[in-house]
Amino acid sequence: MYNFEFVKPASIAEATAALESDGAQALSGGQTLLPTMKQRLAAPDVLVSLTGIAEMQGVCLGDVGLHIGAATPHAVVAREAAAHYPALAKLAGGIGDPAVRNRGTIGGSVANNDPAACYPSAVLASGATVVTNRRRIAADDYFQGLFTTALEEGEFITQVLFPIPQKAAYVKFNQPASRFALAAVFVAKFADGVRVAVTGASNGGVFRWAEAEAALSANFSADALAGLSVDADDMISDLHGTAAYRANLVKVLTGRAVSAA
Amino acid sequence: MTKISMTVNGKSVSAEAEGRTLLSGFLREGLGLTGTHVGCDTSQCGACVVHVNGKPVKSCTVFAHDVAGANVTTIEGMANADGSLGVVQQAFQDHHGLQCGFCTPGMVMSSAALLAENPKPTETEVREYLEGNICRCTGYHNIVKAVLAASGQSVAAE
Amino acid sequence: MPKDDGIGASTKRREDIRFLTGKGRYTADINLRDQAIAVFVRSEVAHGRINSIDTAAAAAMPGVLAIMTGADFASVGGNPAGWYVASRDGATMKEPKRPVLAHGKVRHVGDAYAVVVAETLEQAKDAAAAIEADITELPAIVNMADAVANADNRVHDEIENNVCFDWGWIEDNRAAVDAAFASAPHVTTLELVNNRLVPNAMEPRASIGDYDPGTQDYKLYTTSQNPHLTRLLIAAFVLGIPENKLTVIAPDVGGGFGSKIYHYGEEAAVLAASKALNRPVKWVAERSESFLSDAHGRDHVTKIQLALEKDGTFLALRTETMANVGAYLSNFATVTPTFLHGTLMAGPYKTPLVYVNVKAVFTNTAPVDAYRGAGRPEATFSIERVVDMAADELEIDKVEIRRKNLIGADQFPYTTPVGLVYDIGNYQATLDKLIELGDLAGFEKRASESKARGKLRGLGLSTWIEACGIAPSALVGALGARVGLFDAATVRVNATGSISVMTGAHSHGQGHETVFAQVVAERLGIPATSIDIVHGDTSKIPFGMGSYGSRSLAVAGSAMVKAVDKIIAKGKKIAAHMLEASENDIVFEDGKFSVTGTDKAKTFGEIAFSAYVPHNYPLETLEPGLEESAFYDPANFTYPAGAYACEVEVDAETGQVTVASFTCADDFGNVMNPMIVEGQVHGGVGQGIGQALLENTSYDENGQLLTASYMDYAMPRTTDVPFYTVDHSCVTACTHNPLGVKGCGEAGAIGSPPAVVNAVVDALQRGGYTHVKHIDMPVSPSRVWSAING
User: Fold this and answer.
1) How large is the average pLDDT for residues C277-293?
2) CA dist A258 to A168, A223, A252, Å?
3) Mean pLDDT calculated for residue range A205-234
4) Fewer CB atoms < 10 Å away: N or C end of chain B?
């Protein structure tokens, strides 16, 4: 790993200032960034840890719904969101393993936008708002493809605001080695319709399955999916699963999520 | 190089470390606590699990500077005050929950963390909690048994 | 009942105390004063010609002490293959030199061509990144069929068609086997892949070279399963260091599973670097290096055919296998797919005619060698899959087809058509035990319960045998082995009666420190706590061939027993002198030497003390001291065998397979410590389930390893396996070693993969997917779903 200067600001304002310097990079829980740095694939001059900022920690109810500080570890979300948004809590409680969940954060996951990560599906299916040190970004505008987001240079997530659906469920099918999602589906039923977000499966990263949303908005039942299929052309094909297999999984898991919601 | 201070196994320690120094390296090379093992470079195997402020973390995926001031417990801090094996350690010996011993420190630290959170876990809960600790020797049978036994549950039937 | 610490007791392991408290001492934990750190520079291409390596910029970087490349080792020897295997046409085996560092060409991704030694790890890494190698990339040879078909594209320029050997076993039987097939009422044919595995001992390899300029002694600390063999290879073949000037220490070793049997170039490089710098030089592999450079396992492509009567009686069996040996011959690479595989092709069955053909093929991949089971899992998988398939074709029950063909308990010693003599066994007994223990009668009920939950349940069997306790030197010598495979022990009784046992076996998880002490305690009638087992240091141990092939207790343990018996014999001489009796009248029992028919006796401790305080010894007939060494060469292999059953549940919508239960009924001969034996079986079965369902080593067409970390190489985890039911109550004691033991270390990994795959195919067949005849391992969800929908 290349060396760097480590700084740990105590406030969003300090972190914003620190990230303005050349070669500065934000570090949250580090569960993805550290392995990358070990491979010397990232070489920041200054690493700005966001884990010491009190105002970026915690889970609370607010005007949008459930407000989660970006530096809140998955384990805390799993525990503290359970009463308010059980599907989200379950998702957080299924990321990685317990040790990873004690370090990895929602902000880090959403900022990285790994195509196999869990959180992006919840953010997108919930129609959440991503709050940064500069602005608020709607989920539909935020995710822009593999490892690509609306975040700009020096911008970092401070909070994610989740509207709470009437019903929701997240069903994940593990990639057998990494235990990331080989495919996973988050289904959220709101008063004004159903949102379905899929992670792990697509070459384009997390996406909404519009046909399923329409069908489920009309009839929130696994049966409503019967005639639908996902286009395998857009799916990832790798040694863990063909595109056709992933397309099948998306449909199966969506049905299971609807049944579980 | 800047100085990092923290509490490790109840003792205040401090040592110089670079920004890139991992907690695992700080413990192993900085403090000579080689009980914490490094078995992979992708944060998967769990041999390096230690407790930071009571919570299990993979010490190979945490910068030492990021946990400055924290209370860290390693495998070297798990025995009883008189040097005898702690409850989880003793259960691992009693139920043959280790063979080569390399994954064992992380396995014990994760198991102890589980029992602190959930004093009477089911078999499924034990297996799910230890999913991030890879053992190549035991097939996990006796590890799961040891953890159940350490929680005071009967494992005679297994 | 056994004593708490004698033979047959589940004595708790003494080594656990240090492992559980963080006091284990693995190679990476050792830091020598003034040590420097080595980093290896590894090829990023699978196949390439090295035009030049520019180290000037790297050498000038901060902290850099030395850089060595393949050129620095061009004049030293190569790391040899330990076994000569001739082709069936008599052609000699092709043995390319395996250099310390790649020279001239790089032949697989991860092939090390330079080493940088610096003050710190990060300095060494910085410099390694600054080395400029001009390498012309050549087309990668990855697929074995392509390798054999393409005469021009060669891993080693001098080896045509990339074939190491084309072996027939037994060639003289080939015509008879073919004739039996030509007239057989039924022939079942199966083409299968035995998937390539990465052993993945949890401790990555590490080595420290420590040269002492004052004495010209070299010391090597290394992650080895057999330090003496490593010393022998370095001394005799690679660096030419006199054996008496080289000590190899394998301290606590975090698992091996075969991958740490072999001598690797990194070991020679750190020794040479230490000599050049007059400083200790340490190297610790990162996991990503382990994936690229540890010897891999398995990797066979096989066509197997079984000829049968319509009633299921086996008439003949033949196989054609291509075995990948990778880019270089690792030390056991040639024996693993041949004499550890072809000679097992009779399995536990009476098949009268068997012929095996194996082509070993070089490719631009990491070397492939023995991995837990080594050849025997490949044999067992092929046999047990084709037996199941034949049963399906002939509509015969899968228990009955096995029972009908198993060698009878009254047929031992049994000479197989592939050159082995099974000394003893009772395969019906383990099969019957399995049926009872696994409640096979209750399967249908469990299957309907699974069905109610939307899952397909399947039952898979495997009746297996292995040859282990490696190995009778005379036999293996005749078959091409270049080493003896005996073992050695020294028993040193100290003046106060405590004992140090130096064994040539090496414990890296097996619990020898506990079990060997139990054996000696039982034999000498003294507490195990006064016995220490010393292993893993060539300066302390007379000799040894290490631990692999389930050989430790059967071979090194026998040497130890032999040495203990010499101690007893010497003790009798001493007792005779002390008690003024005839040596022939001394009996040794319960730790006491007594004069038969009298109450005159001396305790073991009194004898020991006397041996070191020989004030009135008749020196011309009685030497002082009480220390004996023994070398033991087995008369035959040992033949553990057993019957396994696996039940799986398949989710047909996702292809997910869940192992619902796994039951093992084994015959290991006499069991010294049941707790440890059961632990060995658990671990072997866990690895077998890993091979069957999860683990795959995948290279792309350019020879890039796609499964190069735990992100893509699926290791079995807690949630992938059930509690296992294991039993070793069926005992037929080995007839030719003093403890009557057979070995248990590899059994689980040998017997389990076919049971799992048989269960998956059974589940699909029962679920109506009758078109699914076979699925290659790993039987991943994607593969199962594709098979269902294929």
Assistant:
1) 98
2) 8, 10, 10
3) 97
4) N
The two beta strands, B55-58 and C601-603, are unpaired
Q: Quick check: A133 pLDDT over 60?
A: yes
Taking alpha carbons only, the member of C655, C658, C691 closest to residue C769 is C655
Tokens for C502, please give them: 């130096």
Determine the pLDDT at residue C790. Answer: 84
A190 and A219, same structural domain? yes
CA distance C555 to C545: 10
Q: Quick check: A98 and B113 CB within 8 A?
A: yes
Architecture (CATH level 2) of domain C486-632: 2-Layer Sandwich (3.30)
pLDDT tens digits for range C65-80? 999 999 999 999 999 9
Length of chain C: 790
Q: What angle do CA C286, C290, C293 make, to 5 degrees?
A: 125
The whole-angstrom distance between residue C498's C-alpha and the CA centroid of its chain comes to 33
Confidence of residue C499 (pLDDT cuts 50, 70, 90): very high
Closest-CA residue of chain A to C694: A176
Question: pLDDT band for position B156 (50/70/90)?
Answer: low
Residue C32 clears pLDDT 90, i.e. is over it: yes
Question: Residue C439: pLDDT above 70?
Answer: yes
Q: State whether C252 and B136 contact (CB < 8 Å).
A: no
CATH of domain C31-138+202-255+260-293: 3.90.1170.50
Structure tokens belonging to residue C768: 């109506």
Burial of C712 (0-12, 13-18, 19+ CB in 10 A): buried
Instruction: Indicate the number of domains in chain A.
Output: 3
The b-or-e profile of A191-214 (16+ CB within 10 A means b, else e) is eeebbbbbbbbbeebbbbbeebbe
Nearest to C233 by CA among C206, C204, C271, C203: C271
Rounded CA-CA distance A97/A174 in Å is 12
Neighbours of chain A (3+ CB pairs under 8 A): B, C
- d(CA C136, CA C492) in angstroms, rounded, equals 58
Domain ranges of chain C: 31-138+202-255+260-293, 300-471+636-788, 486-632
Q: In A111-258, which ranges are E strands? A: 129-132, 136-138, 157-162, 167-174, 181-190, 193-199, 207-208
Q: What is the pLDDT of residue C1?
A: 43
Cβ-based interface (< 8 Å): residues of A facing B? 1-6, 8, 27, 30-31, 34-35, 37-39, 47, 49, 51, 75, 96-100, 102-103, 178-179
Nearest residue to B118 (alpha-carbon basis) of B95, B92, B148: B148
Q: CA dihedral in degrees (A173, A178, A179, A182; nearest 10)?
A: -10
DSSP E strands in C250-352: the ranges are 281-284, 300-308, 314-326
d(CA B136, CA C730): 27
Chain-chain contact of C252 with B128 (C-beta, under 8 angstroms): no
Phi, psi of C428 (to 5 degrees): -65, -35
- DSSP, residue by residue, C457-514: EEEEEEEEE--BS---HHHHHHTTBSS---EEEEEEE-TTS-EEEEES---SSS-HHH
Gap from A80 CA to chain B (nearest CA, Å): 15
**b/e burial code for range B103-140 (CB count within 10 A of at least 16 → b):** bbbbbbbbbbbbbebeeebebebbbbbbbbbbbbbbbb
H/E element, C592: strand C592-595
pLDDT at C2 over 80: no
Q: Which of residues 26-55 of A touch C (CB under 8 A)?
A: 39-40
- Number of CB pairs, chain A paired with chain B, less than 8 A apart: 77
Q: Cβ–Cβ of A102/B55 closer than 8 Å?
A: yes
Give the mean model confidence (pLDDT) for residues C136-148.
96
Q: Does domain C300-471+636-788 have CATH number 3.30.365.10?
A: yes
Residues C751, C728: Cα–Cα separation, whole Å = 14
Q: Which domains does chain B have, with CATH numbers?
A: 2-74 (3.10.20.30), 87-150 (1.10.150.120)
